[in-house]
């Protein structure tokens, strides 16, 4: 059976300085501002109405992840599976008025997932402005105290497929219907449920060069990369944005089209020292990358 969700829909973040976070997303990533109110900003990098959503809050945290389904019936199926698993249904009202149908589910370690029908393609495909202008927001890697239980529950409820994991479930990568190696990742963290990073898809390697130069012009640096992950085979580079979130920039991620694909189980090495899994170009993760964590927002 195909996964119930097709791709990443959006990442919603809480930020303390909304205007500063929006400016940073425009100047560095090159996202386009769709809407800015006193309490919320919508940004995108393509024709989709919104991909990155920022809410004004007391401190930075992960608010929600949106996963897009192509079939409204799959929203109902996710709701059914969530109730069967004893999970809390936060809402069955879409978080944005442009979304036709959705269900929002709270998972045990604090992650909030909204499964929704497609975001309207009502924005200009190309737009002016600074920054890189990525192709789209493509994945998010979450954290959990028990990544095996968290990943398995998400696969059970959301219909995601396991692409790859480490031997002890320290890391797991799950794909949606578009076949990308991972739409959601899960990493073990002593801090518990949260967000490790979210990721923009770049067009080619020249974008990574420009990213480094744009950061340098602001007296900032990359946290890790450029390199090529073994898991996913994607080129990567990471930086920390103005709101304190770790942002990956990626290209050339592996596509898994085989419906009978057997998940890979790999040895990460001590402290992610197996470069064949972590970075095939050799540079291992920085201390800042290893320790990065943003908590999930506390639901009311």
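Q: What amino acid sequence fits the structure above?
A:
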């Amino acid at each position: 059976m195909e996964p119930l969700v097709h791709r990443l829909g959006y990442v919603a973040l809480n930020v303390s300085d909304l205007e500063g976070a929006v400016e940073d997303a425009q100047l560095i990533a090159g996202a386009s501002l769709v809407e800015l109110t006193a309490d919320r900003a919508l940004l995108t990098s393509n024709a989709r109405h919104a991909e990155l959503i920022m809410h004004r809050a007391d401190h930075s945290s992960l608010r929600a992840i949106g996963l897009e389904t192509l079939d409204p019936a799959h929203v109902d199926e996710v709701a059914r599976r969530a109730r069967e698993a004893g999970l809390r249904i936060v809402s069955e009202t879409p978080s944005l008025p442009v979304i036709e149908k959705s269900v929002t589910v709270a998972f045990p370690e604090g992650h909030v997932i909204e499964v929704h029908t497609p975001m309207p393609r009502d924005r200009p495909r190309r737009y002016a402005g600074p920054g890189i202008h990525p192709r789209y927001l493509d994945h998010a890697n979450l954290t959990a105290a028990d990544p095996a239980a968290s990943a398995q529950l998400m696969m059970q409820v959301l219909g995601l497929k396991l692409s790859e994991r480490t031997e002890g479930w320290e890391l797991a990568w799950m794909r949606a219907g578009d076949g990308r190696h991972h739409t959601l990742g899960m990493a073990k963290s002593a801090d518990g449920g949260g967000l490790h990073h979210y990721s923009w898809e770049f067009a080619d390697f020249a974008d990574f060069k420009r990213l480094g130069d744009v950061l340098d012009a602001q007296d900032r640096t990359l946290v890790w990369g450029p390199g090529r992950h073994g898991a996913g085979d994607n080129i990567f580079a990471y930086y920390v944005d103005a709101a304190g979130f770790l942002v990956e920039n990626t290209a050339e991620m592996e596509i898994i089209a085989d419906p009978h694909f057997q998940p890979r189980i790999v040895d990460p090495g001590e402290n992610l020292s197996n470069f064949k899994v972590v970075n095939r170009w050799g540079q291992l993760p920085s201390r800042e990358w290893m320790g990065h964590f943003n908590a999930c927002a506390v639901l009311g």
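Q: And what stands out in the fold?
A: The radius of gyration is 18 Å.
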